């Protein structure tokens, strides 16, 4: 599979303004699981969140996604770590819509999966995706994630319960995919 080159880097306070602007875009935030008062975030809320990520105080291992030319286009994270069973949940958002549908999300997924399996020594990475987020589901399947099933009424979004699918990738599956990249 041909994917663009991306880099994952630690978040910095320089990321606050872009993150804040992305949080105001309903297309970007529609499928994100965020606290009820969001969106929109305030700049101060965004800054506090990024500070918590930088200081590792919120249980997230979050990284900024940048293009080969250093353009910040989104973020990817691991959360809900289960150290006993060696798994964690993955989340991703491409906030800069100029990069949607061009493979940057898949490239960032693979980079974060490498960290998950080799730095954090996980056995499994899983994610949840809204039933109506067809583009994301297609992308996860293209990337090699396996659908484990439908979780009914799993998320309250805008006052209505929606179903979500759970997808996962095992370390051995990633290693097989990675060897062919």
Give the end-to-end Cα distance, rounded to a whole number of Å.
6 Å
CATH class: Alpha Beta
* Main structural class: alpha+beta
- 3D shape: globular
Number of discrete helical segments: 6
Average of the residue pLDDT scores: 92
Question: How would you describe what is shown here?
Answer:
- Pfam families: Acetyltransf_3.
- InterPro entries: Acyl_CoA_acyltransferase (IPR016181), GNAT_dom (IPR000182).
- It is a single chain.
- The chain is of the alpha+beta class and 181 residues long.
- It has one domain: Aminopeptidase (3-Layer(aba) Sandwich).
- The chain contains six helices and seven strands.
- A seven-stranded mixed β-sheet has the order 1-2-3-4-5-7-6.
- A hairpin with a 2-residue loop joins strand 6 (146-157) and strand 7 (160-170).
- Helix 1 (16-23) crosses helix 3 (43-54) and helix 4 (104-119) crosses helix 5.
- The longest helix is centred in the middle third of the chain and has 16 residues, at 104-119.
- It is globular, with a radius of gyration of 16 Å.
- The termini are close together.
- The model has no long low-confidence stretch (mean pLDDT 92).
Task: Write a concise keyword list for the protein shown above.
181 residues, alpha+beta, Aminopeptidase, 7-stranded mixed sheet, 6 helices
Set down the secondary structure blueprint.
Layout: E1 6-10, H1 16-23, H2 26-29, H3 43-54, E2 61-67, E3 72-82, E4 87-94, H4 104-119, E5 124-130, H5 134-143, E6 146-157, E7 160-170, H6 171-179
Brief overview, please?
It is built from six helices and seven strands. The chain is of the alpha+beta class and 181 residues long. A seven-stranded mixed β-sheet has the order 1-2-3-4-5-7-6.
């Amino acid at each position: 599979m041909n994917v663009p080159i991306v880099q994952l880097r630690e978040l910095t306070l320089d990321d606050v303004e872009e993150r804040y602007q992305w949080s105001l875009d309903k297309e970007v935030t529609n499928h994100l699981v965020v606290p009820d008062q969001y969106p929109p975030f305030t700049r101060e809320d965004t800054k506090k969140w990024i500070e918590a990520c930088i200081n590792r105080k919120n249980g997230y291992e979050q990284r900024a996604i940048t293009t080969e030319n250093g353009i910040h286009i989104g973020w990817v994270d691991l959360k809900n770590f289960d150290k006993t069973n060696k798994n964690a949940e993955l989340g991703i958002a491409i906030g800069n819509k100029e990069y949607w549908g061009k493979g940057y999300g898949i490239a960032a997924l693979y980079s974060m999966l490498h960290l998950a399996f080799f730095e954090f020594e996980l056995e499994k990475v899983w994610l949840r995706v809204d039933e109506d987020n067809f583009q994301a589901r297609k992308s996860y399947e293209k990337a090699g994630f396996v659908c484990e099933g439908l979780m009914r009424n799993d998320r309250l979004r805008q006052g209505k319960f929606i179903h979500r699918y759970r997808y996962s990738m095992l370390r051995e599956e990633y290693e097989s995919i990675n060897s062919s990249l």
